[in-house]
Amino acid sequence: MATITSNFTSQPDNFETSIKPLENSADLDPLVDRIGDSKYVLLGEATHGTHEYYTWRAEISRRLIQEKGFSFVAVEGDWPDCYMINRWVKDLPNSGSSIREVLQKFKRWPTWMWANWEVAAFAEWMKKYNSQLEPDKKIGFYGLDVYSLWESLENIVKYLEKEDPETAALAKQAADCFEPYRKNDSYVSAYRGMDQHCREEVVQLLREVRGNVKKYDDERESGLNAEINSLVMKNAEKYYEAMATFDNSSWNVRDTHMVETLNTLMDFHDDDAKVIIWEHNTHIGDARATDMAAHGMHNVGQLVREQHQESGVVLVGFGSYEGSVIAGDFWGGKMRKMELPKAIDGSVEKILHQLGGTNKLLIFDDHSPLKKTFKEKLGHRAVGVVYDPERERGNYVPSRLSERYDAFLYIDKTRGLHPLHFEPNGNLVPETYPFGI
Q1: Helix or strand or coil: residue 314?
Q2: Which of 82, 190, 299, 304 could pair with 287 as two cysteines, CB 3.0-4.6 Å apart?
Q3: Is the pLDDT reported for residue 86 higher than 90?
Q4: In a 3-state reduction of DSSP, which class is residue 201?
Q5: In this structure, are strands 72-78 and 20-21 parallel, antiparallel, or unpaired?
Q6: Strands (E), 125-210
Q7: Residues 6 or more apart whose Cβ sits within 8 Å of residue 192
Q8: What is the dihedral sign for C-alpha 37, 38, 40, 46?
Q9: Closest CA to 80 of 182, 233, 200, 215
Q10: Alphabetically, which GO biological process terms does the record hold (predicted)?
Q11: Considering the entire predicted model, what is its pTM?
């Protein structure tokens, strides 16, 4: 391995030998051992459009489901859309003839985050695995995010009209509050203009659904579906109201909602439930190990550690040196394949590249020299769904890596994932991508 040439501090003699190779599933053994009996495993990504992040997360998840008995996967996606995947992998009635049929219904931008071949392959594996299990033991796939206001409104009204007409009347009243703003999909305008009466109706609806959840029994998870759609409505109110203030509070509302949804899912499952979470590094890496904390921001990784550390929490970050990525030039823009430039000097990714152009696994155990070495604050790349490679230096988050994560997967060269072939409005696009996993 090459000598590090940066302002990185001097290393102990066994530093480089503590970094493990990462080429195949067997190389994940140290990570699986580190996870042990933990009930919460959070798997990150440095972009929302990288093939290898999705496939390595899928492989880790497969091993945890098979070897450790994990119960479900929860992702940074909308609840209604991901619930369609959940129904399909559990082979419930009228859930779709193929996973492609299900994923082509994903219309909210950025569609490529979940409507891609990598997710399709993992969902197909889940369905095959679930076919061997009893209905109450099948592995679930759920969305944690707060964006699906209109879809959640529609779903809960339709469902309650069939199952609970009295509560459906409350749902219709809540929906009426939002209707004037729907044509523009204007969440912020909706919450600026909404009066207190409408907000109280949303909260009352959630109370009613939670109180009646046990009688919603046409499918095992129907009550859960109704409850979380109501929760989305309640917390969307807080989220978009916070967005209208143009400060950091909307971030905290969103991540708090994702943890509240996660806790609802864990309560729904039995006491032995274990969860795998797929989200961006900025959500799953502990915010206290970055500059987010100085700005008054918290995130999912921090909250899960604070609330559930006694049950075992393992945070796993991801990063890469160079390659390509799927992203958009602006919010709502057409997805395209972009260059991911070589990492900047002094960054985590550049340092790991200088140790040899190979994939690496780092485990930050207390006894490992990596724990102390990566306590130094270093730049760590974070790419969102909107990306400009020409402004690359602005995409690095100062991070104490060994405090932000419990383990880190470094992929030296990555490539963009393989979206299913439609734009956000549902029209097919001419580009094709080979199926690869």
Answers
A1: strand
A2: 299
A3: yes
A4: helix
A5: unpaired
A6: 140-145
A7: 241, 244
A8: negative
A9: 233
A10: response to antibiotic
A11: 0.84
Q: Cα separations (Å) of 245 from 145, 150, 238, 382?
A: 20, 22, 11, 25
What is the model's pLDDT at position 343?
A: 97
Residue that has been written with the tokens 């919010």 in this structure: 331
End-to-end CA, the chain: 29
User: Which helix H or strand E contains 317, and what residues bound it?
Assistant: strand 313-327
> What are the Cα distances from residue 286, in Å, to 59, 261, 301, 340, 369?
23, 19, 5, 25, 20
Torsion, Cα of 55, 61, 66, 69 (10° steps): -170
> Residues 6 or more apart from 401 whose CB is under 8 A from it?
289, 317, 348, 362, 364, 374, 378, 380, 408
Write the CA distances from 365 to 8, 18, 24, 351, 432, integer angstroms.
20, 10, 22, 20, 43
Assess whether the previous peptide bond of 110 is cis (omega < 30° from 0): yes
Which residue type, as a one-letter code, is found at position 195? D
* Residue predicted with more confidence, 334 or 379: 379
Residues 308-346 have pLDDT tens digits of 999 999 999 999 999 999 999 988 888 999 999 999 999
Instruction: Please give the C-alpha separations between residue 116 and each of 104, 111, 417, in angstroms, as whole numbers.
Output: 9, 8, 7
pLDDT score, position 199 = 61
For the CA atoms of 389, 393, 394, 396, what is the dihedral angle to 10 degrees?
110
Any idea of the CA torsion for 201, 205, 206, 207, to the nearest 10 degrees? 100
The letter for the amino acid at 248 is N
49 three-class SS: coil
> In 248-317, which residue ranges form alpha helices assigned H by DSSP?
249-268, 281-284, 300-308
Q: How far apart are alpha carbons 371 and 93 in whole angstroms?
A: 49
Calculate the dihedral angle through the C-alpha atoms of 247, 401, 415, 338, rounding to the nearest 10 degrees. Answer: 30
Angle at 422 between CA 420 and CA 426, to 5 degrees: 130
Confirm if 14 and 369 have CB atoms less than 8 A apart: yes
Distance (Å, whole) CA 158 – CA 148: 15
Nearby residues of 366 by Cβ (< 8 Å), 6 or more positions away: none
Confidence class of residue 241 from pLDDT cuts 50, 70 and 90?
A: low
- Residues 34 and 164: their CA atoms lie apart, in Å, by 46
